[in-house]
Design a protein that fits this description.
The two termini are 53 Å apart. It contains 16 helices and eight strands. The protein has four domains: 118 residues; 97 residues, Helix Hairpins (Orthogonal Bundle), CATH 1.10.287.70; 44 residues; 142 residues, Sandwich (Jelly Rolls), CATH 2.60.120.
Length: 415
C-alpha cells in the first residue's frame, strides 16, 4: 500500500522513539538510581508513541480492507506492538520488564526493508548506514551488559563507568583486548568469549562486504567508466581519428552528466506496457500539445503519438538535416537551441529553442528539405518518423484531415 507523506513523517518519529528506547532502557536497568526520577516520564512517552502507532496501523488496515487490498497489519505485528506499548514495569513493579520495549525494534527492521526497496539507487549508502546503526546499538548493549556482570566502579561516576565499559567493548570486538580491563570470574570470562566471537563475525562481515559495498556504491558510474574504457580500447585498435574520438567522448560525457549514462528507451524497457505509456505521456505531453496541428488531440491520440516518438541527441555543430535531404522525420525540441540555415548555408533564418518543433512540412509533403538545421549546443530532441506518423494518421482519419488542413494553411501563408 502506498504510504502518504504523513505516514513517512510518522515513520521517522517512530524510528527516533524506538532508537531512544533501545538506548535508554538498558541505562535505566544498569543505572537505576540515576534515572529514578525521569524514568517514568520517558516510559510514558514511549507508551504514548507506541499506542499511537498501533492506532495508526489499525486505521491503515481498516482503510486497506475497505479498498479491497490485503491487510498490512497481521496478528503477529499487533502482538509485538502491544507487548512493546504496555508499561509492564509500572503495572507490576518488575523493573526488568522494561526490556520488552525492545520488541519494537522489529518494526525498525521492517521499515529498513521498505526503505531498501524504495531507494534502490541509494541502496549502498543505506546499507552502510543500517550497518553502522546496528553496530552502535550492539556496542551500547554489550557495554551495559558488561557493567551488569563486571559491576560498578565505586571510585568513578556513572558516566566514566559507562565510558570504561564502552572502551572494553570496542577493544574486545576489534581485537583480543589490551589486558588493561580483564575479566575476573567465570561469568565475565564467558561473556568476554561471546563478545570476541561476535567480534570475529562482525569483522568477517566487514571484510566480506565492504569491498562489494564500495564497488557497487555508484553502479551507474562504474558502468559509465567500463563503457568508456572499452570504447577507448576499440577506437585505438581501429585507429579512429582523434577528432572523432574526442567527439565520441564528449557525447558520452554529456549523456553521463545529464542522464547518468542511461537513455530513456533502456530505462523504460523494464516497465510493463501501461507504465511505459503513462511515463511517455508525462515526458512528452507538453511538447506534443505545443504543435499546432496536434492541439485539440484527444487523450488516446496523445498516448499514441507519445509512444511513437523517439529520443535523440545532437552535439554542438551537428546538422540535424541539410537542405535537399528527403524529409523522413519531424523533430520536437526537449532541450537546447538550434539554428535554421538557408539553402546556400550563409544566412541564419531563425533560431529554435526548447518546446518548438520543425521538419513537419517536408515530412508530410514528402519533399526535400528547403533549409538546413544545425545544433548550437547539446540538444535533446524527440523524433517522429514518417512511418510512425502515417500509422497515427491511418488509425485517426479525423485527425488526418485536421493535419492536412493545418499544413495547407501554413503553405498558403508561405510558412
Amino acid at each position: 500500500m502506498t504510504r502518504s507523506p504523513a505516514d513517512r513523517i510518522w515513520d521517522i518519529v517512530l524510528t527516533c522513539t524506538v532508537t531512544c528506547s533501545a538506548i535508554l532502557v538498558p541505562l535505566f536497568l544498569v543505572f537505576e538510581d540515576s534515572f529514578s526520577s525521569s524514568r517514568w516520564q520517558f516510559d510514558l512517552l514511549f507508551t504514548f508513541v507506541f499506542v499511537v502507532d498501533i492506532i495508526a496501523h489499525w486505521r491503515r488496515s481498516k482503510d486497506a480492507g475497505v479498498a479491497g487490498a490485503r491487510s498490512p497489519y497481521s496478528f503477529g505485528w499487533f502482538s509485538l506492538d502491544l507487548i512493546a506499548a504496555i508499561p509492564f514495569w509500572l503495572l507490576t513493579g518488575a523493573v526488568w520488564l522494561q526490556v520488552l520495549r525492545l520488541a519494537k525494534l522489529a518494526r525498525i527492521v521492517h521499515l529498513m526493508r521498505i526503505w531498501r526497496r524504495r531507494s534502490v539507487q541509494h541502496w549502498s549508502m543505506l546499507r552502510l548506514l543500517f550497518f553502522i546503526y546496528w553496530i552502535i546499538l550492539s556496542i551500547h548493549w554489550i557495554s551495559t551488559g558488561w557493567i551488569v556482570i563486571h559491576g560498578h566502579d565505586d571510585h568513578v561516576g556513572h558516566a566514566s563507568d559507562y565510558l570504561k565499559s564502552v572502551y572494553w567493548c570496542v577493544q574486545t570486538l576489534s581485537s583480543v583486548g589490551y589486558g588493561d580491563v580483564l575479566p575476573m570470574n567465570d561469568a565475565e570470562y564467558l561473556y568476554a568469549i561471546c563478545v570476541m566471537l561476535f567480534g570475529v563475525g562482525v569483522f568477517g562481515y566487514i571484510v566480506g562486504n565492504m569491498a562489494s559495498l564500495l564497488a557497487n556504491f555508484d553502479p551507474a558510474k562504474a558502468h559509465y567508466l567500463e563503457t568508456m574504457e572499452k570504447l577507448a580500447a576499440f577506437m585505438k585498435y581501429k585507429k579512429v581519428p582523434h577528432p572523432l574520438q574526442r567527439r565520441i567522448r564528449e557525447y558520452l560525457e554529456y549523456l553521463w552528466e545529464k542522464r547518468r549514462g542511461y537513455d530513456e528507451a533502456s530505462a523504460l524497457s523494464a516497465l510493463p506496457p501501461q507504465l511505459i505509456v503513462e511515463v511517455s505521456v508525462h515526458l512528452k505531453r507538453d511538447i506534443i500539445e505545443k504543435a499546432p496541428f496536434f492541439r485539440g488531440a484527444g487523450e488516446d491520440l496523445v498516448r499514441e503519438i507519445a509512444l511513437q516518438m523517439r529520443p535523440v541527441t545532437y552535439l554542438p555543430g551537428d546538422h540535424v538535416f541539410k537542405a535537399g535531404d528527403r524529409g523522413r522525420e519531424m523533430y520536437f525540441i526537449s532541450k537546447g537551441r538550434l539554428e535554421v540555415v538557408s539553402q546556400d548555408g550563409t544566412t541564419v533564418l531563425t533560431t529554435l529553442s526548447e518546446g518548438e518543433f520543425f521538419g513537419e512540412i517536408a515530412l508530410l509533403q514528402n519533399r526535400p528539405r528547403t533549409a538546413s538545421v544545425r545544433a548550437l549546443e547539446y540538444c535533446d530532441l524527440y523524433t517522429l518518423d514518417k512511418s510512425a506518423l502515417d500509422h497515427v494518421l491511418e488509425v485517426n482519419p479525423a485527425f488526418a484531415a485536421q493535419v492536412q488542413e493545418s499544413i495547407s494553411e501554413r503553405l498558403a501563408r508561405g510558412m
